[in-house]
Request: fold
Amino acid sequence: MSTATATLTDTATGLKASRSRALKVVPRFGMNYDVEIGLAGVAAALGCKPLSAAKVFNSSIPVSYPGHVIPASVTCPLAVIRVPLSGSAPWLTAAQQAALAQVFASMPVTGRPVVSINQEGEENRFGYTAAQVAGSHGTAYQIFKARAPFNARYVQDLGTYSAYSGGRGTAFPDFLCCAVNGQQDLDAYLLDWYPNNTTAGAAASIQPAVDYIRGKIPGAVIGAAECNWLASNGAYHGPGTPDQWFADCWAYAVASKFAAFIPYYYAAHSTPWPTDPAELSELSAIAHASGL
Amino acid sequence: MSAPVVTGIAFDKQAYNPGDPITATVTGQAGSQLAVRNVTATGTYTDQATGMTGMLAGMLSVTSPVEDTTTAAFSDTDGRAYALQSLAQTPAGVVTAVFTATA
Reply:
């Protein structure tokens, strides 16, 4: 919560008067575009306005942004594009660079379109080095700055698990594309937020990643690009109940001035759309609190 | 002499998402000063029997409030840059200022 202050000054006497009131800036609520009930279905289920944010996954470089058909209400799409990385700098082939340039140039000149390559690319399962991950984002960002419209943003999307000792742990910061690592600071850093284990709550699961990011980029814009109480591989879930998880996550996101809060539901990844009334009620409360 | 007063701050939305445009409207009352004007007051006496008149004039100081001009500023604790879009003041001293920023 921010506090806004207005001041009137008498030009003749210099006397001033001020008054303050709360200014509520909260994370933008969204959902992955391929949620099985559809984005319109999400708004209907939660009793809220149409969503303005959605995460759009591309398994290869699309012809144009965002790569899939999304509702017109989504003025702030986050398109993530999977790109196999080369083994040496600049980590993207000339053909990949040309294809990305075409995507970036096709981003809309209205709203707040967001793009990234290789979500969670730092995770062990991809087998990339820190130099590959940070360097490839650096290469993509240079192309983005040359080709994307002024209103667009380029981000890095990382997994909270990667910052956990079971993931990359203390090596996590090396994977960040930022000035301290020899690249440039990006427009924002988004986190795919899942419980690190069966006992780690919302804050405990994300805090290591946030601390590592703030350690490298003190003024970084941070947000949640995915979030669920269930691990995305369905192997386990966090402590407590899903509604409490989401309530805690939202409270953390608001307090930490996150830019976005995007829960993730996708049946094929063992996170189906919920049927639990308490979980749905909490998601509805969050959607309304976000301004929807 | 009175100081200006900010009577209200209104936002165009109850909550904003990062990147949203913010419009804030500030209302207030301008400060005022007492302006002094010297005027001449003239009294006239008329004798009803003769019709003769007598006159006496004297100087009076009359004070009345005059609204000052006002400037307006807007800020928030997150350091957003607010641009003044308009600033209007009525003869009665009612001030309305509109600011915009990006959330």
Remarks:
- The first strand of chain B starts at residue 5 and ends at 11.
- The CA atoms of residues 26 and 38 of chain B lie 37 Å apart.
- Residues 32-66 of chain B form one domain.
- The mean pLDDT of chain B is 88.
